[in-house]
Amino acid sequence: MKLFAKLYAALDETTKTNEKIEALVEYFTAAAPEDAVWAINFLIGRRIRRLIPSRDLVGWAIAEAAIPEWMFGDCYSAVGDLAETIALLLPPPISSTDKPLHYWVEERLLPLRDWSDEQRRESLVFAWLEMDERQRFVWNKIITGEFRVGVSQNLVVRALAEFSGVPAEVLAHRLMGDWQPTPEFHRQLIARETEDADISRPYPFFLAYPLEGEPAQLGEPAEWIAEWKWDGIRSQMIRRKWRTFIWSRGEELVTERFPELEALGGLLPEGTVIDGEILPWKNGVPLPFAQMQRRIGRKTLGPKILAEVPVVVLAYDLLEWGGEDVREWPIERRRQTLAGLVDSLRSHGHIVLSEPVAFTTWEQLAEIRTESRERRVEGFMLKRRGSPYRVGRRRGDWWKWKIQPYSVDCVLMYAQPGNGRRASVLTDYTFGVWDSGELTPFAKAYSGLTDEEIDQVDSWIRRNTIERFGPVRRVKPELVFELAFEGIQESSRHRSGIAVRFPRMARWRHDKKAEDADSIETVRALLAR
């Protein structure tokens, strides 16, 4: 635990990639396999389901710190991070534990699910007394399910590759799918022998960078393939050992959520992996993504919802064929093979090929792109001819040329602290629009501003807070921001009656007063576009 807490501090204290990789390699070199595998588990974003409610955690911390509840609330408002607040307020530790990370997870955390509240409290308080402040902080992050530090999975993979000598692509593949953090998995992860992929494991997804500027900068149009960019659930459909597996990009196995696609998988040739998008689809056209959310939100899928919201896999790449990894094939060859496969399954009705869009000039493609909203797509994917299927987000071969997002001018109404490095800064905002002369909360956003702008807004919020509700502050309705978002739909769950997808702050409208912000009528008009 001491070694892992030291790693966390090292990663949190630098923004330099090489220094982070150096710290990770140093940790992997020193840590025992049973510790390293849990560290990898947490570093790449996998979490243990929260076993202790926050109210219990706070209550026990208040009791141990011997402080009134209001004082804890004020401290939490100032710090903005529950794990850090508890670590700072607890009385000085008795010692700094030398027990390893796997002990704390396997012997002290996972058994909590079967213990009584009193046993949980005794175990947790004892753990706090054994740990120094740095260890407590990391431990609290783990038990609250809020462990985050400034490294991506790609960075962890790079460090593991440097440590083990195993190619990064192999490591990335091994970390996909459902695995358990055991010493045996750690051995398999860093083994030099690479013929070990289990039957369910997906490939790392190839991700595109957004195109900044005009597509003419990419060179001759003839060098590129254009496809519509669909708005669904990115997924891989796998057929191996006569079983079907469907994985989302978030590494969630979703096979049973899409029974019609599982049935389709039974028709795929052995050793096939398709990359594509799961879309709600009816009468040859995509349905709004809100219809997909109707399915996602249900625990059971009855005949009615399956009939109302059928789905297809919109196939656009082939990653494995006949049990062979074909990601190095040129995209034209992968697409040709995929097209033949989709054509042979046409009668099934739940698989559609993402057809290329014919164009000869960038100007012509730009004109076609204006049809995006009508087609319920987000613009174009541009893929270089001859390119392989790469790992992760790489510049050069795949670009997403999205249409301009929707935008609305909104008034800042509420603010609260962020997480991690921004735990003491007010960065998470709630925005409102006008409805019958009153501001109605419309959307929340926390990204889009520069660090300098965040500091300015944070300072303004602290000077202009009207009311406080724990960490949340209500502010004077004066600041106006342009909020951009990708999709919009009606929603009975939201006070405004509207829900938006992927909202972020496009700019701070210094040129507008609160009364100049948009109304709910303006927002509703976007539904018709």
Describe this structure in words.
- By secondary structure, this protein is α+β, with helices and mostly antiparallel strands.
- The protein folds into three domains: 2-143, Orthogonal Bundle (DNA ligase i, domain 1), CATH 1.10.3260.10; 206-402, D-amino Acid Aminotransferase, Chain A, domain 1 (2-Layer Sandwich); 406-528, OB fold (Dihydrolipoamide Acetyltransferase, E2P) (Beta Barrel).
- Helix content is 36%, strand content 24%.
- It has 20 helices and 22 strands.
- The strands form five sheets. Strands 4, 5, 6, 7, 8, 9 and 10 form a seven-stranded mixed β-sheet that branches. Strands 14, 15, 16, 17, 18, 19 and 22 form a seven-stranded antiparallel β-sheet that branches. It has a four-stranded mixed β-sheet with strand order 2-13-11-3.
- A hairpin with a 2-residue loop joins strand 8 (311-321) and strand 9.
- The protein is globular and about 70 Å long.
- The model has no long low-confidence stretch (mean pLDDT 88).
Concise synopsis of the structure shown:
By secondary structure, the chain is an alpha+beta fold.
Question: How do the helices and strands line up, and which of them pair or pack?
Answer:
Blueprint: H1 2-12, H2 17-30, H3 33-43, H4 54-65, H5 69-79, H6 82-89, H7 101-109, H8 117-130, H9 133-143, H10 153-164, H11 168-174, H12 183-189, E1 206-207, E2 209-210, E3 224-230, E4 233-240, E5 243-248, H13 259-265, E6 272-282, E7 285-286, H14 289-296, H15 303-308, E8 311-321, E9 324-325, H16 331-344, E10 351-353, H17 362-369, H18 372-375, E11 377-384, E12 392-393, E13 398-402, E14 406-417, E15 426-435, E16 438-445, H19 451-463, E17 465-469, E18 472-475, E19 480-485, E20 487-490, E21 498-501, E22 504-508, H20 520-525
Parallel strand pairs: 1-12, 2-13, 8-10
Antiparallel strand pairs: 3-11, 4-5, 4-6, 6-7, 6-8, 8-9, 11-13, 14-15, 14-18, 14-19, 15-16, 17-18, 19-22, 20-21
Helix pairs in contact: 1-2, 1-9, 2-10, 3-7, 3-12, 5-6, 6-9, 10-11
